[in-house]
């Protein structure tokens, strides 16, 4: 049974997307699947407009995000926009549930093959089986076109719901729960020093998400954790009997920490750790090399996941652009997008610099990376880019799995 929200950040949960035609029973299915009234149920086509994201814990799947999407056959005046948002949800989906409600399965099949091309596991479901008169015809069509056997489900009676849950739990990617922010860099009783400037970007009374997640993981590993701000970094080192095995810093003070750290301590940053945790680290490292080929006529795209209001000394809006302008001249063009905004065409850009992406799940970050790769545009991330710009990329320790 669902137990509601838990403390796992939504970016680290399995994202389960529910897809189907308008009025295929998606919202009713979700309510039956979760045991809660998550989605509005109506006979009026197009009731679900924007995708609905609900963080939950569902047995036996575990912590997950359920995504209720608009029907991909929406013919209303806002249909095009709704379908675009449905496809954005598809990019974030770790496991897709595809509902079939009638004999015309062409649109469902297009989405099925979209997920297959992206190596996204799919659970095929024939919905409304308690009233579905043509379910055997639909079944045979699906088997012929996909060579898969769908599940029969009724949201009204609950038939098939547990089968869907069990099928999802089988399809969870095997490496999903094995990914760790710190990989195998540290083990039990290793001393880890976290250097965390509390600047204007830090939320009042709280730590930023990457810091919280990293601390929690280190606690689970039984590491010994020491935390300090930048101005207390040297004092923190002096208080230790032995140098820390690993120092994790905010990327913005990479150079300062490197110049003052003990020789034997490994050094990395939260953003560099997240480069591997949420993205493609080798690709990011290779992308950072393209920084050297930029000129004052180059175009750089900075992609920030957060949608906070612009702040002074913001790393994406000010610090990285200023570093680029200092090196290549003030005429270099730097564009910034935030949230889920990301251009379809990237051809105008010479380099993309992605943030650590703590707010997004790995599947969605990888969809951006795949888009950049397909258009032959190099890509890196904040921490890797700053380490390269400050000349210490070869001194940084990367996560090893």
Considering the chains and any ligands shown, give keywords for the structure.
single chain, alpha/beta, Rossmann fold, four-stranded parallel β-sheet, 13 helices, 34% helix, globular
Number of helices: 13
Terminal CA distance: 33 Å
| DSSP strand content | 15-25%
Structural class determined from secondary elements: alpha/beta
User: Spatial order of the strands in the main sheet?
Assistant: 2-3-1-4-5-6
Structural description of this entry:
Mean pLDDT is 89; it is low at 1-7 and 44-48. Helices cover 34% and strands 17% of the residues. Helix 6 links the parallel strand 7 and strand 8 (224-228). It has 401 residues and is of the alpha/beta class. It is built from 13 helices and 14 strands.
